[in-house]
């Protein structure tokens, strides 16, 4: 017997609010390490500046590696067991891991807990965007995911404030506590009606991750989706996370901190996510909005690397803010991922795609190290950023438009 479909809901429904708050805590925990990287490593006995950079990159890779694993795990579970199971299961895992992060006494413990936290952090956004996309009417779902992103990315600003005021250990405790508190809202959210209908069809194979690679057209779409998200993580994972190092290379008149760079970048992301989501609705085109923001990003990467040599820290932070606006297409990118595939693979794609894009930092870091060694710190970053942006332009230009697409179908 086919399950009864849940009624369509409005933009400020419980599903949208919980997904937005979940993403808020997700971003808080995801970005927190970038903010407390230097402080926490020095407290753990790493005092040499070069070693702080190297160990910081190692821990980022552990977290992002966890997100690669978690993206596959939660994506498959989202299509097999349901969107809600992943939404709240991932919140529970990363909350417990972040509470444990507050007790670490060595880099080795820190690394393993960042791996576990990364696995947990991998599930929330994809499950939330999938649930919202399937719950809202097709002409409104872009506004719903816009709300999720705008509220969610502001979690980075809270992470900066807490990290600065309460210290890095307490900052992890706060993040874990916020996530556990969010679990209380589970009772107010209902499962996606589209998923329930497909779940009742026993002949439909759900969550088959390998099927993304066995069909050339399907694989082509999936690959292009992944490539769209790489420039954002080049900006966040390289340019902003390594802000102190870039500040020294650019000859700024004062020292800059990664925490403030992340704060201003994500403050910009709040406006960028709102604007990109709104434009995709007003223009009735996801692809047009994505292309405009990629062009904006290319300009701002050039400004960051070549136009502010010898500037003041305040000018640098201002550039980080506008740079953040330029990559404020994250939720739009995940929305496009969800809209490109059927209900039996939607959670798998919407969860793996952002985490593979985030996990691209694992490849971006060694690529940046190689290029910076060959050409210099700033030219190496320019080459890497330019390549990632050109590939993203190609990916968007060749991807089918998904605005207004009916999502009630299976692959």
Automatic annotation (TrEMBL):
Localization per record: Membrane
Residue ranges that the Swiss-Prot or TrEMBL entry lists as coiled coil: none
Topology of this chain in the membrane: Multi-pass membrane protein
Record keywords, A-Z: Membrane, Transmembrane, Transmembrane helix
Start and end residues of each Major facilitator superfamily (MFS) profile domain: 15-403
Transmembrane segments: 12-36, 56-77, 84-104, 110-131, 143-163, 169-189, 222-244, 256-277, 289-309, 315-338, 375-396
Keyword Transmembrane helix: yes
InterPro entries linked: MFS (IPR011701), MFS_dom (IPR020846), MFS_trans_sf (IPR036259)
GO CC entries: plasma membrane
GO MF annotations in UniProt: carboxylic acid transmembrane transporter activity
PANTHER family for the chain: CARBOXYLIC ACID TRANSPORTER PROTEIN HOMOLOG
The name this protein goes by in its record: Major Facilitator Superfamily protein
């Amino acid at each position: 017997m086919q399950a009864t479909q849940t009624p369509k809901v409005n933009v400020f429904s419980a599903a949208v609010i919980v997904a937005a708050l979940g993403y808020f805590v997700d971003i808080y925990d995801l970005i927190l390490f970038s903010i407390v990287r230097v402080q926490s490593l020095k407290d753990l006995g790493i005092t040499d500046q070069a070693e702080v950079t190297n160990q910081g990159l190692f821990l980022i890779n552990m977290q992002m590696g966890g997100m690669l694993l978690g993206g596959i795990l939660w994506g498959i579970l989202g299509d097999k067991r349901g969107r809600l199971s992943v939404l709240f299961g991932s919140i529970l895992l990363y909350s417990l891991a972040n509470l444990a992060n507050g007790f670490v006494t060595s880099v080795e413990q820190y690394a393993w807990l960042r791996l576990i936290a990364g696995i947990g952090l991998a599930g929330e956004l994809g499950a939330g965007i999938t649930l919202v996309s399937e719950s809202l009417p097709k002409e409104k779902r872009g506004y719903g995911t816009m709300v999720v992103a705008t509220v969610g990315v502001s979690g980075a600003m809270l992470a900066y404030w807490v990290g600065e005021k309460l210290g890095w250990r307490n900052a992890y405790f706060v993040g874990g506590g916020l996530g556990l508190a969010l679990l209380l809202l589970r009772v107010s959210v209902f499962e996606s009606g589209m998923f329930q209908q497909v779940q009742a069809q026993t002949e439909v194979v759900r969550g088959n991750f390998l099927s993304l690679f066995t069909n050339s057209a399907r694989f082509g779409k999936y690959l292009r989706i992944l490539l769209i998200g790489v420039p954002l993580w080049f900006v966040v994972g390289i340019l902003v996370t390594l802000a102190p190092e870039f500040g020294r290379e650019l000859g700024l008149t004062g020292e800059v901190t990664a925490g403030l760079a992340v704060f201003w970048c994500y403050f910009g992301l709040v406006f960028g996510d709102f604007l990109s989501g709104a434009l995709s609705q007003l223009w009735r085109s996801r692809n047009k909005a994505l292309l405009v923001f990629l062009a904006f990003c290319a300009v701002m990467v050039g400004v960051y690397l070549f136009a502010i040599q010898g500037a003041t820290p305040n000018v640098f932070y201002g550039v980080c803010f506008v740079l953040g606006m330029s990559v404020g297409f994250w939720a739009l990118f995940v929305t496009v991922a969800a809209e490109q595939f059927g209900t039996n693979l939607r959670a798998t794609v919407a969860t793996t795609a952002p985490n593979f894009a985030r996990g691209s930092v694992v490849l971006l870091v060694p690529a940046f190290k190689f290029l910076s060694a060959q050409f210099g710190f700033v030219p190496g970053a320019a080459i890497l950023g330019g390549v990632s942006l050109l590939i993203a332009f190609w990916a968007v230009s060749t991807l089918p438009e998904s605005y207004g697409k009916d999502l009630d179908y299976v692959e």
